[in-house]
């Protein structure tokens, strides 16, 4: 299989930042907060780049949807080894309501347009924890899916995926083209070093709007309220002797 | 030491909004201070200047993800570099640069491990 791989990358609030909810409980504070690439998306990019280094695929295309700042995330992916980027511009209100359904419609349209053989996504984003985009994309394209992948290998014209499930590990073989979502143990993503970032500036990032792909991004969901998790209740301290007396009493 | 007016002039010379360039700005200021102090080291004569600047830029970039905070790291980094700014012996400079380069790998590993631990704790339930 020597084809094109689409990798979806998402710009999220950095994992180490303490999240704060806006006073009006409408959403979290994102202005002036450090953003970076979703860790699972980094793992997805790394897997695609590794496949390219093994000469199993020809081209890695990094895709991101969002405002102008999403280009930074695409540049990081390019610095990690992707060949070119596609930035689907979504701004303002549309961006606030952008969710897995809209992203999967965009990815499906791009996969058909770019004639991709494989789509690799992170299993979930650390900001919304949806874990839906990969599955929805596969359904829209009617492609097989290998989700929660902890190991991916190509065997002829099929892909062998070892999935991490609650019961343990499941090994499946799926046809190409397919959608794969990366789990934490798939690989160790490389660091995008400064010289690579400078080189990545020469790589192309195509710009387009969802309307260019014929995708309707109206949301079917409305966020009513965002709250902080409840404060931890103080634990009840047990009296040591009390518990012992209780045990002796029952005997 | 440079007075306020001279410092302002240096800053205005290389003011650029691209993040990578800002570190060049800081280093340029550092190097100029060195020459102003009268060490008779012209920018071109010192062969290690390029290496030192590259090292500083790389460490500054990696320090953004430092677990205990990028401001803390930046302060310590600047202090460490300024502490050795008067070293002129080529062997010593080489050793310091080599130590700095090994620090790059350590930093990458540390930042990655921390991220991995946090992700694992949050997303990978241990089998009971």
Automatic annotation (TrEMBL), chain A:
It is found in: Mitochondrion matrix. Residues 229-251 are annotated as: Disordered. One of its GO terms (molecular function) is electron transfer activity. InterPro entries: ET-Flavoprotein_bsu_CS, ETF_a/b_N, ETF_b, ETF_beta_N, Rossmann-like_a/b/a_fold. This is Electron transfer flavoprotein subunit beta. SUPFAM superfamilies: Adenine nucleotide alpha hydrolases-like. Heterodimer composed of ETFA and ETFB. Identified in a complex that contains ETFA, ETFB and ETFRF1. Interacts with ACADM. It holds the Pfam family ETF. Keywords: Electron transport, Mitochondrion, Transport.
TrEMBL record, chain B:
Transmembrane segments: none annotated. Residues 51-102 form the Complex 1 LYR protein domain. One of its GO terms (cellular component) is mitochondrion. GO terms for biological process: negative regulation of oxidative phosphorylation; respiratory electron transport chain. CDD domains: Complex1_LYR_ETFRF1_LYRM5. Belongs to the complex I LYR family. This is Complex 1 LYR protein domain-containing protein. It comes from Perca flavescens. The lineage of its organism: Eukaryota, Metazoa, Chordata, Craniata, Vertebrata.
